[in-house]
Amino acid sequence: MSDLQADRLPTISASQALEDLEDKGSNCISTGIKALDKILAPSSVSSQRYGSAVAQSGGIKRGQVTEIWGPPGSGRTALGTQLAANALANDGGVVWIDCFHKTPDSRLSAALENIQLSKEGSAGARASAEEASNGDRFTRYLCFTLPHFLALLSRPSSTTVPAGTSLIVINCVSALINAALPRSHVVKQKTKQPQGPNASTKRMQALQTIISLLNKLAATRNCAVVILSQCATKMQSEHGATLVPALNATVWEQGISTRIVLFRNWSWEGRTPHSVFLAGVQIVDGHTVMDMVDNASAFTVELTGVRDVEYEAGHPMEMAAAAQQKRKIGQTELEVPDSEDEDYGWADEDEASLPAPPPQWQGSEDIILGQDVGRSEDEEEAEEDYHSYDEAEGAEQAEELDSNAE
């Protein structure tokens, strides 16, 4: 009996385990933007129960999958580089996976040197930055094919993902998936298709497999998985063009715990406009944030990394064009020419000869989704299955009519 007692682990109460989990300062990785870290800060259970103010560091949480998406030039790679530099500065390991093009090493070294400069001074900042970015705690992989990427995630070993890794950054995985498994359009065919998964089903299965492997990797290794995703332009007949994530399927969004969108806007200093980067939080811990645009965090991208700045959304001056009202034609004492009442030869049937919306094209960072107006991938897959079922049923009815006629 004494041997069994010696082999057992020491008993820890649930309250003590919860306090130990909350006291871990390295459970979050700072983004370098104070306003964004505050929004991403985990809610303290003890403060909600007992009303005590527990100060916790905010940022990207470990053990979860976070997606950062935005248009080209919105600062995705810069924010991912800043996350990697902050993780290395806190003695954590970083695994960087490039799926579209190789990220320059100089950006990470400059951001890490700036952090070390604020801590150690200029003496050993450069040496410490080069040692961390080129040492054993930083691992880089170039996965330019989907099988290579899946093989890396399927069986992660201690060599591919070293012990002590706190952050895994995957750059442009959306380009890799869209190139290997592009979105398929619904094409009505009269012939009966052979049985088997179609292109849309294969794409859904790949998305579900990848997001499941990423969540498993984040949970088992207690690391933060950050996906730097591209965007797509969805053409909608009622609302025009809309920017959406390049991977917007339901199976993909269910595995995303936190989603951050990056965009750019104008900031005014007096009467002079300046371009500013904005980061809006759409999802935090699986919960949708309603006032994303109002609580957007402003930052700027420099050679030494990202830095938060002050941002005023409103224009200091009144819009002269909006304030002025258009005068009526009677107030101008101008005569309306008779030619304005004519139709210039246009007819209603001329609109039928207009060209169709442009088809979807892959290989660009800004993907155009043209023919499937306002629909997600799940709706397209459901309609494609409906058409396949309808065609099969029609073929059976035709065969039955032919047999009755004979």
UniProtKB/TrEMBL annotation:
Main localization, broad class: nucleus
GO BP: any one term: meiotic DNA recombinase assembly
Localization in the cell: Nucleus
Gene Ontology cellular-component terms listed: Rad51B-Rad51C-Rad51D-XRCC2 complex; Rad51C-XRCC3 complex; replication fork
InterPro entries: HR_Repair_Mediator, P-loop_NTPase, RecA_ATP-bd
Bias-annotated ranges (Acidic residues): 335-352, 391-406
Region (Disordered): 323-406
Residue span(s) of domain RecA family profile: 25-231
GO molecular function list: ATP binding; ATP-dependent DNA damage sensor activity; crossover junction DNA endonuclease activity; four-way junction DNA binding
Keywords: ATP-binding, DNA damage, DNA repair, Nucleotide-binding, Nucleus
Protein name according to UniProt: DNA recombination/repair protein RecA/RadB, ATP-binding domain
